[in-house]
Amino acid sequence: MEKSRMIKFPCHGDERGWLVVAEGGGDIPFEIKRIFYIFGSERDVVRGRHANINSEFVLINVAGSCRVRVLDGLGGEEIFSLDSPHTGVYIPRYTWKEMYDFSPDSILLCISSEKYDPCEYIRDYDEFADMMKGEQYDR
Ligand code: TYD
């Protein structure tokens, strides 16, 4: 199974400033079907709190910063700090994610492999953990 990981994007700079490239099927490890972005969240807000059956994501703080906590449902946990417009975190399918600690200027760009389908979101952690324990048992 794929693991969450940080990704660095190529950054082109000259006297005019910087340009960051993130291509689907290249630096982004899937073809891109959807983008959305999150801004205006207070520091004590926790967003996400769900896992996806079909969608993979790359999250990039194009401005400001936040943290992303990922859980595998089997006791594994990782925390990623996003604070640069040329780094992101890849989040595979079947990964519980929580975004928090937003700076006031945070704009969190979310790139996804799938169009929005609320039916493929698991929003109950216990349900997710049971599902992952079942998967482990089936293997
Ligand atoms: P939600 O999944 O709760 O956001 P977060 O993961 O940041 O906590 O989504 C907030 C609202 O936006 C909810 O009403 C569903 C809607 N939404 C869409 O319509 N399309 C989308 O692609 C996404 C991600 C959310």
Descriptive overview:
This protein has 139 residues and is mainly beta. The protein has one helix and twelve strands; from the N terminus they run E-E-E-E-E-E-E-E-E-E-E-E-H. The chain has one helix at residues 125-138, and strands spanning 5-8, 11-14, 17-20, 34-39, 47-52, 57-63, 66-71, 77-82, 87-91, 96-100, 107-112, 121-122. The strands form three sheets. A five-stranded antiparallel β-sheet has the order 1-9-6-11-4, with no helix packed on it. Strand 7 and strand 8 form a beta hairpin. It is globular and about 55 Å long. The relative contact order is 0.27. The model has no long low-confidence stretch (mean pLDDT 96). Thymidine-5'-diphosphate (TYD) is lined by residues 34, 36, 38, 47-48, 116.
Give the oligomer, counting copies of the same chain as homo and different chains as hetero.
single chain
Reading side by side through the largest sheet, how are the strands ordered? 1-9-6-11-4
Unreliable stretches (pLDDT < 50, length at least 5) are none
Largest sheet: 5 strands, antiparallel
How much strand?
35-45%
Output the number of helix runs: 1
Write a short abstract of this structure.
By secondary structure, this protein is mainly beta.
Write the layout of secondary structure elements.
Blueprint (H helix, E strand, L loop, with lengths): L4 E4 L2 E4 L2 E4 L13 E6 L7 E6 L4 E7 L2 E6 L5 E6 L4 E5 L4 E5 L6 E6 L8 E2 L2 H14 L1
